[in-house]
Amino acid sequence: MVPDSRASVLLATLATEPQARRLFLALLRDAVVAGDGGRFPEPDPAYAATPVRAWYVHIDGGGQLESYFNDAARFRPYHLPPTGVLTRDAYPFLLFEDAPGPLRFAGVSREFWGIIDYLGNLPYA
Q1: Whole-angstrom distance, CA of residue 97 vs CA of residue 55
Q2: To 5 degrees, how large is the angle CA 91–CA 93–CA 94?
Q3: What whole-number distance in Å separates Cα of residue 89 and Cα of residue 124?
Q4: Cβ(94)–Cβ(31) under 8 Å?
Q5: Is 22 in contact with 69 (CB distance < 8 Å)?
Q6: What's the confidence (pLDDT) of residue 16?
Q7: Residues in the chain where the model's pLDDT stays below 50
Q8: Which of 17, 63, 87, 111 qualifies as a cystine partner to 81, CB 3.0-4.6 A?
């Protein structure tokens, strides 16, 4: 994990929210890299010191996520953007440090976190 990154905040949140932690780990375990979203233009100066790269991830929700991905208020429309192009509200992605060496987790996108919220609000989640 990248120190002092969005991932640090995420881990603090997951430490206090067991349902979100369970869903996050389940989604992460089943996520498959689908494409390279390029450099993430960090809008928050607190996290801008470390360059990070967006990696689009495919998440197969076993049919549970179709209505989430087809919701026009969330995705405009749901699609995998071209390689190297970061497009918001198109596909879930994770952030990783963009540097040589070991892969270090830097955060999740709102598109990815939205899946956790969606699943957490289902009556049987």
Answers
A1: 11
A2: 175
A3: 26
A4: yes
A5: no
A6: 96
A7: 125
A8: 87
pLDDT at 123: 80
**Residues 58-76: tens digit of each pLDDT:** 998 888 899 999 999 999 9
Q: How far is CA 54 from CA 40, 41, 84, 105, 123, in A?
A: 6, 10, 9, 10, 31
Backbone angles phi, psi at 3, to 5 degrees: -60, 150
The helix or strand, by DSSP H or E, that contains position 52, with its residue range, turns out to be: strand 52-58
Strand order in the sheet with 105-108: 32-39, 52-58, 93-97, 105-108
The full set of domain ranges for the chain reads 6-120
Q: End-to-end CA distance of the chain, in Å?
A: 27
Closest C-alpha to 112, from 12, 28, 14 = 28
C-alpha span between 11 and 122 (Å, rounded): 23
Residue 36 pairs with which residues in a beta bridge?
55
- For every residue of 75-120, which 3-state class applies, written as one string? CCCCCCCCCCCCCCCCCCEEEEECCCCCCCEEEECHHHHHHHHHHH
